[in-house]
C-alpha cells in the first residue's frame, strides 16, 4: 500500500518546492508517492526484473530499461594478468560513508582463502588494516575489467556497483550501511543473485561464509544479466524518449 507522504526529505521537497510550482502552473498538488513518480508522461526506470520486484500494476508509461552501465574509456591494469586464482572484488563506496569496516573485515576474512582479492577503497583510509599478500589495494580501478574476471563482488550495496556486477553475471555479497542500500541488498537476496549481510553482523567469519555461499548463486546473477540485456539499456531509453517526442510533435 502506498501511504500519504507526510514525513521525510522527499515529502518536504514536494510540499515546499514542487507543489507551489504546480499550483502556479494550474496543476493540482501531489500528495502521494505514486502520484509524484507517475505524474510525468514517461517514467524510465534504470533497472529490470527480476532484480526489480515483478509487478503487474505498472502503467504503460513506466519503462524498465535496465541499468546505466557507461563508464569512462579505460584499459585493464597490467597487474590484473598476474592474478591467477578466482578473483573477488571488494569495493567501498565512491563517496565517503565511513564503510572502512568493510575493507578491514575483507582483509581479515580472505587472508588464508584461495582467492585473489582486489580491494578498491574510494575515500576511506585503510592504513590501519593488515593487508595479506593475496589482497591488492587500489583507490580506484575500472570495474568492468575486474568484473570480467570476478567470481564474486563484495560491496556496500550501492545501486551502481550492485547492478554493474549483476550485469556481468557476477553474484554479490551486499553489505548495506545506509541510504537505499538495505533495499538494494534485499533485492539481491530475493533475486537469488547473491547474499545479504547487514553491516551490524559483519565480521570476518560471516563475510568469508557469505562469499562462498554467493559464488554458487552465479546462475541467479546470470539470469539477472540476461534480463538486463533484454531490457535494452541506453538504446531502449533513447527509443522511448524519441517516441514520446514524436507523439507530442504529432499532437498525440
Write the layout of secondary structure elements.
Layout: H1 9-24, H2 33-38, E1 43-45, E2 62-64, E3 87-91, H3 100-109, E4 116-120, E5 135-138, H4 143-147, E6 150-155, H5 159-167, E7 172-174, H6 181-190, E8 194-196, H7 204-215, H8 218-231, H9 233-249
Parallel strand pairs: 1-2, 3-4, 3-6, 4-5, 6-7, 7-8
In the CATH hierarchy, what is the architecture of one domain at level 2?
3-Layer(aba) Sandwich
Helix content: 25-40%
Strand order of the largest sheet: 5-4-3-6-7-8
Helix-strand pattern:
HHEEEHEEHEHEHEHHH
| Rg, nearest Å | 21 Å
Multimeric state = single chain
CATH level 4 superfamily of one domain: Glycogen Phosphorylase B
CATH topology name of one domain: Rossmann fold
What is the arithmetic mean of pLDDT?
A: 89
Low-confidence stretches: 1-7
The major beta sheet can be summarized as: 6 strands, parallel
Structural class: alpha/beta
**What is the top-level CATH class of one domain?**
Alpha Beta
In total, the number of strands is: 8
The number of distinct helices, counting runs of at least 4 residues, comes to 9
What characteristic shape results from the CA principal axes? elongated
Distance between the termini: 32 Å
Strand content: 5-15%
Amino acid at each position: 500500500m502506498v501511504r500519504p507522504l507526510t514525513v521525510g526529505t522527499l515529502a518536504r521537497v514536494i510540499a515546499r518546492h514542487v507543489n507551489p510550482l504546480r499550483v502556479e502552473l494550474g496543476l493540482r498538488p501531489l500528495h502521494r508517492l505514486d502520484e509524484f513518480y507517475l505524474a510525468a508522461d514517461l517514467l524510465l526506470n534504470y533497472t529490470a526484473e527480476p532484480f526489480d520486484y515483478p509487478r503487474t500494476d505498472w502503467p504503460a508509461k513506466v519503462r524498465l530499461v535496465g541499468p546505466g552501465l557507461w563508464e569512462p574509456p579505460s584499459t585493464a591494469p597490467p597487474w590484473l594478468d598476474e592474478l591467477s586464482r578466482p578473483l573477488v572484488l571488494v569495493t567501498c563506496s565512491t563517496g565517503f560513508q565511513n564503510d572502512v569496516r568493510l575493507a578491514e573485515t575483507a582483509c581479515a576474512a580472505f587472508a588464508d582463502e584461495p582467492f585473489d582479492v582486489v580491494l578498491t577503497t574510494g575515500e576511506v583510509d585503510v592504513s590501519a588494516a593488515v593487508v595479506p599478500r593475496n589482497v591488492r589495494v587500489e583507490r580506484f580501478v575500472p570495474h568492468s575489467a575486474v568484473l570480467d574476471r570476478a567470481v564474486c563482488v563484495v560491496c556496500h550495496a550501492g545501486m551502481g556497483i550492485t547492478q554493474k556486477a549483476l550485469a556481468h553475471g557476477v553474484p554479490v555479497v551486499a553489505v548495506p550501511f545506509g541510504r537505499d542500500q538495505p533495499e538494494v541488498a534485499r533485492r539481491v537476496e530475493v533475486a537469488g543473485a547473491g547474499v545479504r549481510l547487514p553491516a551490524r553482523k559483519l565480521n570476518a567469519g560471516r563475510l568469508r561464509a557469505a562469499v562462498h555461499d554467493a559464488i554458487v548463486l552465479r546462475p541467479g546473477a546470470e539470469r539477472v544479466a540476461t534480463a538486463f540485456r533484454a531490457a535494452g539499456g541506453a538504446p531502449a531509453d533513447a527509443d522511448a524518449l524519441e517516441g514520446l517526442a514524436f507523439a507530442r510533435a504529432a499532437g498525440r
